[in-house]
Amino acid sequence: FVVLAVRVAFLPGAEAGYQFLAKPEWSALANPKTWVYAMGQAFFSLSLGLGCLCTYASYFGKDTNLSKTALSVGVIDTMVAILAGFIIFPAAFSVGIQPDAGPSLIFITLPNVFQQAFGGVPFLAMIFSLMFYVLLALAALTSTISLHEVVTAYLNEQFGMSRGRAAVWVTGFCVVTGVLSSLSLGVWDDKFFGLGFFDLLDFVTAKLMLPLSGLLVSLFVGWYLKRSLSYEELTNYGLQKAPYFPIYMFILRYLAPIAIVLIFVNELGWLS
Question: Residue 164's closest CA among 141, 172, 140?
Fold first, then answer.
């Protein structure tokens, strides 16, 4: 990523991409949807409300510093996203593709970038292309595993299934659902509540379940769970300092629920 970010800077027209990425459009901050979209992106990027963080954290040892780990996740996620932006947007402007082109930014823009950036050395272009798309596949795979583990762990712990059997059941269900979703974009055009099968799944999960589960988690920890238990977990039973704890509880109790409700209302199309 670092090598690509440096090399992209020398492509013709790259400066327009830097201006697009780094020059603030202050008027957009007056639009409430800007803030709602940002919070929605945080939900997806950090896997909030999906159960992944709770499931992974359940495997931590008692000596794990939750505050430091959570901060590391947020910082690394943001740094990688910014670095990716400094590669993709200058490259998009360099090859004449609009920055809102969606998946084509990855599958059309970057192959052109590799050819231009290392055009004089085809071997390097091939190596960096291979490295990038292998890393992209690994990123997708690790995200899949994190989502897979949530349901697998639930079946294993709640119903006593072996991990192998639970994994097989979850994988089989996902394969069948994936095939039906794919077919609904082509030959299978039946509608459910006015939506195709893929669109229905997208609506139910992204627009309903994700913000709703995030809201319930914040309300549960903020209002139902004992404050003393939250404090003990954050401080490793008093071994770590947590001077921010009152702010943390205030955010969970008041700010987070309001923000999540705004996301929920926006996803349903009620925010004008």
Answer: 172
Question: Taken in order 261, 266, 268, 272, is the CA torsion positive or negative?
Answer: positive
What's the pLDDT tens digit per position in 9-59? 888 888 999 998 888 888 888 887 788 778 877 887 887 878 888 888 888
Q: Per residue in 196-206, pLDDT tens?
A: 888 888 888 87
Backbone angles phi, psi at 193, to 5 degrees: 55, 35
pTM of this structure: 0.72
- Say how many C-beta atoms besides its own lie within 10 A of residue 97's C-beta: 16
CA distance 2 to 223: 44
Q: How far is CA 119 from CA 3, 9, 112, 115, 165, in A?
A: 15, 15, 10, 5, 49
Q: What is the pLDDT of residues 210-266, one digit of tens each?
A: 888 889 999 999 999 999 999 998 898 888 888 999 999 999 999 999 988 887 787
